[in-house]
Design brief:
This protein is an alpha+beta fold and about 140 residues long. The protein has one domain: Lipocalin. The protein contains two helices and nine strands; from the N terminus they run αββββββαβββ. Strands 1, 2, 3, 4, 5, 6, 7, 8 and 9 form a nine-stranded antiparallel sheet that branches. A hairpin with a 2-residue loop joins strand 7 and strand 8. The chain starts with a helix and ends with a strand.
């Protein structure tokens, strides 16, 4: 009886192992996309160039609110405004910014504001937000915090 039980146990373990490996290793779990609203989006690229936030005291970022308001910083000055969505179309309006004198971060403030003016579409790919101009060229790219 012990030989049969031992054989049965080995058979079941082998069968389970074979069933598990039949299709190769399991596919890695795909990260779900971050929601546009309520996520702090950290600026990673601007106008096709990487943004080195290590050199900036305050990380350049944007946050979209459900009431269609936007707030953020270019690394020095705070900005606020509103945004409109229609499908993958996105435009910004009523943008305002503080005008503080900063020794760091000012090189991103103005280009980020200009990128938001040019933005016409957006796309979220996993944890990345890409804003594109009317020609489809990326003007700003962000990563979810």
């Amino acid at each position: 009886m012990k030989k049969v039980s031992l054989f049965f146990l080995v058979f079941c373990v082998s069968l389970t192992a074979c069933q598990h490996n039949r299709g190769g290793p399991p596919a890695p779990a795909e990260k779900s996309s971050a929601p546009l609203e309520g996520t702090v989006w950290l600026l990673t690229r601007l106008g096709g160039a990487d943004v080195d936030s290590a050199k900036i005291k305050i990380e350049p970022s944007l946050t979209f609110a459900a009431d269609k308001r936007i707030s953020g910083t270019g690394g020095c000055n705070r900005m606020v405004g509103s945004y409109q969505l229609e499908g993958d179309k996105m435009t910004f309006s009523q943008m305002a910014s503080t005008k503080m004198a900063c020794f760091e971060g000012t090189d991103v403030d103005v280009p980020l504001a200009q990128a938001l003016e040019k933005a016409r579409t957006f796309k979220i790919e996993g944890q990345n937000l890409i804003l594109r101009d009317e020609k489809g060229t990326p003007v700003a790219e962000f990563k979810a915090k």
